[in-house]
Amino acid sequence: MKAAVVQMNSTRDGAANLAAAESLVRQSAAAGAGLIVLPEKWPWLAVGEGVVEGAEAIDGAALTAASGWASELGVHLVAGSLTEKRPDGTLSNTSVAFGPDGKALATYRKIHMFDVDIDGVSYRESDYEKAGSETASFGVGPVEVGLAICYDIRFPELFRHLVDREVEVMAIPAAFTATTGRDHWEVLVRARAIENQCFVLAANQFGEAEPGFGFWGHSMIVDPWGEVLATVGEGEGFAVSDLALERLEQVRSDLPALRHRRPTLFSTGGA
Q1: Does 110 qualify as catalytic in the annotation?
Q2: Looking at the 3D structure of the chain, how many domains does it have?
Q3: Tens digit of each residue's pLDDT (9 = 90 or more) over 186-244
């Protein structure tokens, strides 16, 4: 199976974001990717009240377009995430995965809210979006793909829970900040791959969305041993790699750490 991660510099320009996403998805599919992951907040990336301004229903323009791309190109598409305007009036940071027929296979709402102060910049996701409470995964042939979003990567119990659902590939759309990304991004992506002996597809935003709010980029695909198979680096673009399932089986057989777990001895407070 060949997979791709897409890296974007999304802003408040929804039309430009949509055009960039479509172009990069098409390029990824042309390169042979059958599973493509867009970054977090790809249709509209803003902070503060701008989050509310860019919210749209799950059947709105962005995800309708993503569904159409998946159907036309015959690919599985994790449509990053967007600020979803829900029927009850609340907002959530929502990721939807589409199958080659354009139908939604899984919907995940970000569980962990990014409420931090870093280098004098405040991020308060919970001021605008409501945290989700359920995990999600979907099948690509015999392979189960789990969903997480950005800040979720700091919570290993979520990924353990997904492994217990027999997930073998983790898709992580992100808008990981430049400040934290310099020191933590690659370490965390590789750690989640190593400890769960799975592939990780981490699709990140790059550059400034608004003055003072910058994102790290360096989207990457990592194998179950922690080897970086492909990376975008800086700027917009995409990275493609084969996901050799026999490699996953080999790693889990040679170093059977998952079989050596004793979860009944521990309470993780997981999702």
Answers
A1: yes
A2: 1
A3: 999 999 999 999 999 999 999 999 988 899 999 999 999 999 999 998 899 999 999 99
For residue 42, give the DSSP letter. T
How distant, in Å, are the alpha carbons of 9, 42, 83, 108 from that of 45? 9, 7, 9, 18
- Given the residues 110, 125, 198, 236, select the one marked as catalytic: 110
Q: Exactly one of 85, 150, 198, 236 is catalytic; which is it? A: 150
Helix segments in the chain, DSSP class H: 14-30, 49-53, 61-73, 156-164, 178-196, 245-254
Residue 14 CA, chain-centre distance (Å), reads 19
Inside any domain, residue 145: yes
Token couple for 232: 């975008």
Provide DSSP, 154-188: G-HHHHHHHHHTT--EEEEEE--BHHHHHHHHHHH
Choice among 40, 84, 129, 186 that is catalytic: 40
Q: Does 40 participate in catalysis according to the annotation?
A: yes
Domain CATH for 155 = 3.60.110.10
Residue 146, in any domain of the structure: yes
Catalytic annotation present for 72: no
